Amino acid sequence: MMPMNFEPFKIVPVGYVRKEPETHIKILPEFREATEGLREGDWVKLVLWFHESDTPEKRRTLKVHPYGNPKNPLTGVFATRSPCRPNPVALYTVRIHRIEGSRLYIDEIDAEDGTPVVDIKIFVERYDCPKEVPIEEREAEIGAGRTIGEVNIIPRKADHLDELEEVSPEEYDALILEIGPKTTTLTAKELVELIEALQEVYENLPVEIKDKLRGMFQ
């Protein structure tokens, strides 16, 4: 049996939960640059540190009555949302309603005013709401992914295509398409249809815009 390592490691707050005048995250000045790319309307995952539960006694609590109701049977904290746990980490999925300087105004949450925020991650359906998808993570060519606006395009790896001789374009899933937090896949046939549709949109652009675009990409 491997020995347990209780050697501490460092976590620093990047901001704090504030409740007035509305619930928001106040980002510390030294981390303000890390918010670039966040937009109003984005869904994000908040990682908080429940500092009021950061006591030796509460860290030793391994079972609780869910919802604090003693009528509920004792349950391991990993199967609950209890703030009492070996490491008092809290997770929330919230929407950014507006951004004002270093303040991210979000949905109402039950964290106390002054709760430290230790991380913010953009919500991605593929990771945060896992479901069976035609293209498994190991088959995605992550390094070839492209971000265009709020759209992420991740192609499927081209390995072992010789084994797919019997697969039709309607059956072969060619890429993962992420639009904001939403994820879908496109078959090879749908990819061609998308390319044709985009080409049609491009051809209908004003001549002046197309001329400027040609100058930009030459």
TrEMBL record:
Protein name, per record: TsaA-like domain-containing protein
The TsaA-like domain, residue ranges: 11-132
Family, similarity comment: Belongs to the tRNA methyltransferase O family.
Highest taxon in the source lineage: Archaea
Keyword DNA-binding annotated: no
A Pfam family this chain is assigned to: TrmO_N
Organism whose genome encodes this protein: Thermococcus gammatolerans (strain DSM 15229 / JCM 11827 / EJ3)
Cleavable signal peptide: none
NCBIfam families attached to this UniProt entry: tRNA_TsaA
Entry keyword Mitochondrion: no
Keywords, in A-Z order: S-adenosyl-L-methionine
InterPro entries: TrmO-like_N, UPF0066_cons_site, YaeB-like, YaeB-like_sf, YaeB_N_sf
